Amino acid sequence: MNDTIAALATPAAPAALAVIRVSGPRSREITDLLLRKPVRWHPQKAWHREIWDGAERLDDVVLLYWQQPRSYTGEEMIEVSCHGNPLLVDRILAAYFTRGARAALPGEFTQRAFLHGKLDLTQAEAIADLIHAGSLRSLTVAQEMKEGRLGRVLAGARTTLLELVAHAEAFLDFPEEDIDPEVGAGMLHRIDRLRDELLGLAGSAPTGRLLREGIVVVLAGRPNVGKSSLFNAILRQSRAIVSPHPGTTRDTIESLCQIHGFPVRLIDTAGHRTAEHPVEAEGVRRAEEALRSADIILHVSVAPEPPEADPVSRAPLLPHQRLLLVANKGDLGIHPERRSQLCVSTLTRQGLPELDRLLHQEIASLAPDASTGSAVNARQEAALRRAAAALERASAAFRAGLACELWCLELRTALQAVGEVMGAVTSEEVLDEVFRRFCIGK
Ligand SMILES: Nc1nc2c(ncn2[C@@H]2O[C@H](COP(=O)(O)OP(=O)(O)O)[C@@H](O)[C@H]2O)c(=O)[nH]1
Ligand SMILES: [Mg+2]
After folding, report:
1. Which of the ligands is closest to the CA of residue 333?
2. Which atom of ligand 1 lies closest to the CA of 328?
3. What pLDDT digit, counting tens, does each position of 405-430 carry?
């Protein structure tokens, strides 16, 4: 961390402005080398200056200075706002690099912030989530995590664990004395309550996955029932297409959108039937793959036809999957046996608000923790479950009247695992894994 790093913090595309971040002990010194008119550096002040590479004037920029430790990374930092031309950005960066700065690795600014104690690991992870959040719910949860919500809960858990360990160690010092039953019962109660609390947090992981990766809603059904029409109708209804992009084949199309603030990956499939042609077979294979990845399957059939015409699905649903039945082309009539079904028409838009409501209901029930603001990621979940399992063993050993050393050891294991979530104790690999997800310049 003794070197000075630099990177573009904004997208590498033509824009009004681009921001280059520089962090490390030589930030000011190297910047000075690029200026003709010197700057008397004051924290959190801005200067309008020309940047020169030797005899060549590169750009006029605005320089911002953040003094250690009151900067994002906790180090000396300078932000250079230049004109947003990627070629120009490259030249300014090159000028920094030839004078001793090094190109920052992905997430390196945030990694330094973490290593300097500016944020805990859950907050660092939340910054990546914040940048990538594709819906309002994802954004809110990422913001709460970034503000240290999970960290605070875990800090409380650590305090409790430390007290329990201290208690247990006191018993270790006096092995001949029996544990007072009342004190013992109190400790057991605290251990069990903490275990439940950690399991509760770990239980928000499915919501976390859905908020980070998007809820996969797949349109299924025979060809020509109106899946693609419904796909377009839902997208128009939800109105917030983040980035529509065609799928890998012409048969599977995916679009990111928001439904009531939740991130949704809506997938239109080719529909299932026995395919003769190899290209079509590939389309069907992709459709089946999409169905396996679905959180919600929207099975479309045709309202005027009898229900037998549409065998729902050949493959059984996976445990977490939800199935919504919808009969389209309701404008052409509704078969008597479908009276209880949701009937819509993409033509007249009848029933579409009802479908929107049902979708919202299913989505909200898939991600119940989204409103409570906790949604741990896979790494956090694994460590939380390890901590809870250790507490479970501690509790069992205590109840079985086993030696104090045994359950004391388990309490320490739990303490270690809780510390891992926050990054109080972490291995190099864990940190690499976490910060690899970041983009360069963050
Ligand atoms: N009458 C009527 N026709 C529809 C409706 N929705 C779709 N269609 C028609 O049904 C045909 C197949 O639609 P499409 O969305 O391509 O079905 P897909 O093969 O399941 O994707 C097209 O000719 C559509 O215009 C509807 O609500 N009412
Ligand atoms: Mg279609």
Report:
1. 1
2. 27
3. 888 999 999 999 999 999 987 778 77
Q: How far is the CA of 229 from the centre of ligand 2 (A)?
A: 7
Return the CATH fold of 209-371: Rossmann fold (3.40.50)
pTM score, whole prediction: 0.83
pLDDT tens figures, 117-130:
999 999 999 999 99
In the block, tokens 């320490």 appear at: 412
Which residue lies with its CA nearest to atom 24 of ligand 1? 226
pLDDT digits (tens, 9 = 90+) for 4-49: 999 999 999 999 999 999 999 999 999 999 999 999 999 988 999 9
- Architecture of domain 123-204+376-436 in this structure: Up-down Bundle (1.20)
Ligand 1 center to 350 CA (angstroms): 14
Question: Which segments of 67-144 are extended strands (E)?
Answer: 77-84, 102-103
pLDDT reported for residue 275: 52
| CA-closest candidate to residue 201, choices 384, 370, 368 | 384
Query: For the chain, which residues make up each domain, given as ranges?
Result: 5-104, 123-204+376-436, 209-371
How far away, in angstroms, is 296 Cα from ligand 2 center?
Answer: 18
Say if ligand 1 is within 6 A of residue 283 CB.
no
| Structure-token match 């297409």, residue found | 241
226 ligand 1 Cβ < 6 A: yes
CB 288, CB 315: distance < 8 Å:
yes
Helices H, strands E: what count in the chain?
A: 14, 13
The CATH fold assigned to 5-104 is Gyrase A; domain 2 (3.30.1360)
CB distance 258 to ligand 1 below 6 Å: no
